[in-house]
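It is worth pausing here to work through a concrete case rather than discussing structure prediction in the abstract. The textbook approach is simple: state the sequence, then state the predicted structure, then interpret. We follow exactly that order.
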Amino acid sequence: MSKPELLQVGPYPEWDETPLHAAFQVYRYFEAEDPAAFLDQYGSEIRGIATRGELGASANMIAACPALEIISVYGVGYDAVDLDAARARGIRVTNTPDVLTADVADLGVAMMLARWRGMIGAEAWVRSGDWAARGLYSLKTRVHGKRAGVLGLGRIGYEVARRLAGFDMDIAYADIAPKGYAADWTFIADPTVLAERSDVLFVTLAASPATRHIVGAEVLEALGPEGLLINIPGPRTSTKTPFSRRSRRAVSAPPHSMCSRASPHSTLGFSRWTTCFCNRTMHPARSRPARPWANWSGTILPPISQAVTCSPLCSEAIMKASL
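Step two, the predicted structure:
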């Protein structure tokens, strides 16, 4: 029996590449010298697209695959998938909420600790020999008892807040409405007001037109010069977010921190305000644990009628079940 044909938009870790290639006839789009010609040649054979959150699947890509049945997103974000094009043809779309929720929350809190406790600078101080030549590293600030704001109390935001409670922090959050599961935390409807009362502001918003540009100059000014911003967005939540040139604060965020000065090093579609190399800690947003797929069980979304919702994803399991 022939294997189902699959278009792979971007590379995966080896532990997922191997079973993927064992189960499917894989066409590696990301290696094509001429992507348009590649789709012209193989598009008619493709029954599934395996992609990543930041890569998605465009309307042109979907149109080039007339036999397409499913788009499987190796990640949580699906805003780079043209949902209208998928919906029009009844193509199923899957993503991976809750597979990495706890891991992302762990990493976000670790970024706060690293920044406030000066862990990266302190390590460099020791490694360089400055601890012996120049004396003690400067004292930093405590974490426990501070005021924390969580902008977006969804899956990740909730897990972040639960961890912050362990530090006896005063927790408030902003969302479209108060949450019944957050009775011990303060609801503040206005993100600017939330920022004003926070020592640290976690941005844990889903990427959507409603959240685009929600963190701008006003929110950053309200956070203040000593405020800390931890950005844990969906792939495009913070894209082209405007930041004030007047802002001068330490910020820290996976995958990119947000800063105030323009830089020629803008990458990954992020705003020119996000990429200067001052007062920030960066992480490439690879928060997944080793081989988490061992505990995954794939389920399939029906043809899209509203927003894409949940689906734990192992690309092989989901594609194989569908095709």
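Step three, interpretation. The longest strand covers residues 48-52. The longest helix spans residues 101-116.
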